[in-house]
Amino acid sequence: MSSARPLTALRTIAVTAALPLLLTACGYGSESTDDGKQTGVAADTEKLSVDEVRIGYFPNLTHATALVGIQEGLLQKELGGTTIKASTFNAGPSEIEALNADSIDIGWIGPSPSINGYTKSDGKNLRIISGSASGGVKLVVNPDKIKSLDDIKGKKIATPQLGNTQDVAFLNWIAEKGWKVDAQSGKGDVSVVRTDNKTTPDAYKSGSIDGAWVPEPTASKLVTEGAKVLLDESDLWPDKKFVITNIIVSQKFLKEHPDVVEAVLRGSVKTNEWINANPEEAKASANAALKELSGKALPAEVIDPAWESITFLDDPLAATLDSQAEHAVKAALLEEPNLKGIYDLAPLNKILKAEGKDEVDDAGLGTE
Q: Coil, strand, or helix at residue 102?
């Protein structure tokens, strides 16, 4: 399967800067524009229960299941005559906003916005229906200023957003070191500087930050600027796995169009299988998609180490999402949540069973 033949022309780019996401607030930032184009399918191909399914994701390597699945036509193949209308977002809050506004039906998104969206709607707006990726988050630092983990104290370390997945992880790590930081202001024994991933490399070059706890490919971009990897977050988790990207769906869409949801999930499962069987070709496909979206492909010195640190899988790693919620509570960014019902893994497990794969667990947070 060639990575040079994109099967969809639509890529809708989020064009405004993301506002900070507080897990205890419901203000959302950044928007996406829409050029109205759709993926092409044969005119005589049978449609499912809707003419089109609206899918959201980020132009990030941690969302490569969506990037590659659309680029290679693997999602479209399962949907038959139902077309994909794709929108990309620069931040989780805007994708949750789009789901709430009925602008998208299904989305690839991180755990913290999933938790936030679910709890702020009293469990009424979304379900997590699959995993997608694990890992791909690193603490990278200026080696001239920071030699060891203990040297982080007193330094300025960037995270992408107040209350986002990496921010929560870093605040929890700081707390476990016994250091004190006010979560809202980021001030304390460590200065936590919330910085958009797009501008973090410039902030590092200017010396306004000493390091960053960030996802890929930002971490590897910083390494090309002279930073060193001090810690891979996966080393802090059991089996070195934690959810970085999962798939959510509008509860309304799940109820009304289960055939479409199952088709997207089949496409996701087959895409992850293809990615893992063809890592180099899949990496090239993801980079081709990123070039189409941003106008610029990632250089080898960035994409190679970034890609190697991400695991693509169908398991949502539900227990790690529950732990991430606990970390947000400890940081006073989230009131004690009731996450019962956030998962509906029945459609995924049906597909996995049919494919002869192991079923996955919802850690007691399912709908049943």
A: coil
Phi, psi for residue 312 in degrees, rounded to 5: -100, 125
pLDDT digits (tens, 9 = 90+) for 13-35: 333 233 333 332 222 233 343 43
Virtual CA dihedral for 347, 350, 356, 358, nearest 10 degrees?
Answer: 70
Contact (Cβ atoms closer than 8 angstroms) between residue 67 and residue 286: yes
3-state secondary structure of 222: helix
* Other CB atoms within 10 A of residue 10 CB: 19
Q: Could you tell me the pLDDT band of residue 44, with boundaries at 50, 70 and 90? A: low
Q: Inform me whether the pLDDT recorded for 10 exceeds 60.
A: no
Contact indicator for 167, 159 with CB cutoff of 8 Å: yes
Residue 152: which of 228, 242, 243, 235 has the closest Cα?
228
- Residue 53's pLDDT is 98
Nearest to 232 by CA among 130, 138, 157: 138
Predicted model pTM: 0.85
Q: Give the DSSP per-residue string, 277-331.
A: HSHHHHHHHHHHHHHHHHS-PPPHHHHHHHHHTEEE-S---HHHHHHHHHHHHHT
Predicted pLDDT of residue 29 = 31
Cα torsion for 295, 307, 260, 357, to the nearest 10°? Answer: 160
The SS3 of residue 355 is: coil
* Cβ 139 vs Cβ 200: under 8 Å: no
Reference 137, options 155, 114, 157, 159; nearest CA is 159
From 207, 196, 221, select the one nearest 136 (Cα to Cα): 221
Place of tokens 């994701």: 57
Q: Which tens digits make up the pLDDT trace of 322-358?
A: 999 999 999 988 899 999 999 999 999 999 999 999 9
Quick check: helix, strand or coil at residue 344?
A: coil
- Is residue 329 a contact partner of residue 337, using CB atoms and an 8 Å limit? yes
Q: Are 89 and 98 in contact (CB under 8 A)?
A: yes
Structure tokens at 59: 């132009």
